[in-house]
Structures are given as C-alpha cells and as structure tokens.
Amino acid sequence: MNLTDYLQLPISERKQIVTEPVGIKDPLWMERLKTAIKEKNPWIIIFNCDLMDEYHTLKKV
C-alpha cells in the first residue's frame, strides 16, 4: 500500500496500521503528520522532533 492509498483510509483503520510502525499515537499529531506528507510541507510539524523524524522516514519509503 502506498502513502496516498493509506491517507484515503478512514482514521479508525489508519490507527491500527500506524500505531505500530510509527510511534505517534496522538490523533492530532497524526493528522498534522498526514497533512505535512500530503502537502509535502514539513513546516507544519517543524516544532515536534518526533514528527519530523517520522516525516523523513516516511518520505524515504
């Protein structure tokens, strides 16, 4: 499954997929991470180091 397909899933399904490989469990931060990846704009999450790490990890995949 690519990232675009994943982002189209309802949040309830995404949580089950994401909480294991990604260490972010807060739904608000997950939405910010999703938006940053979708918009290709890391400035949305620039103030959270964990989100920045996940952003760059997901961009490599």
Task: Provide structural commentary.
This protein has about 60 residues and is an all-alpha fold. It has one domain. It has 4 helices and no strands. Helix 3 packs across helix 4. The radius of gyration is 11 Å and the shape is globular. The mean pLDDT is about 75.
Features:
mainly alpha, 64% helix
Question: How would the blueprint of this fold be written?
Answer:
Blueprint: H1 3-8, H2 11-18, H3 27-39, H4 49-60
Low-confidence spans:
none
* Rg: 11 Å
Helix content: 55-70%
- Overall pLDDT confidence: 73
Number of strands: 0
Summarize the biggest pleated sheet: none
Distance between the termini: 11 Å
Name the helix and strand elements from N-terminus to C-terminus, one letter apiece: HHHH
The outline comes out as globular
Concise overview:
By secondary structure, this protein is an all-alpha fold.
